[in-house]
Amino acid sequence: MLHVVSRASPPARLGVAVTRRLAPRAVDRNGFKRAVRETFRRHPVKALAFDCVIALRSRFDAADARIAAREVSGLLDQLCAAQR
To answer: Which position among 2, 5, 30, 48 has the lowest Cβ density within 10 Å, counted as fewest Cβ atoms?
Structure first.
């Protein structure tokens, strides 16, 4: 789930929320956060003026990191498209 709030000036900021209930192992939570941060860092949405919070809504396994990164990239693409 992606929550977005407009800011007065760029760059965009990112927050990631992952609960222990959805990713019990710390290595899985950290892997998810790392994948999301890397996706955000490389995405053009970073140049826009937004505060974004990504919250995990279903169970996550470290093997799903690439899938999660693609989903986050798709959400950020939609945000860029909506801004233009």
So the answer is: 5
Residue 15 belongs to domain with CATH number:
3.30.230.10
Range of the domain at 48: 2-83
Structural domain count of the chain: 1
DSSP class per residue in 8-25: SSSSPEEEEE--TTTS-S
**Along the 84 residues of the chain, how does pLDDT read in single tens digits?**
889 999 898 899 999 999 999 999 999 899 899 999 999 999 999 899 999 999 988 887 777 778 888 999 999 999 989 877
What pTM does this model have?
Answer: 0.85
Distance CA 27, CA 14 (A): 20
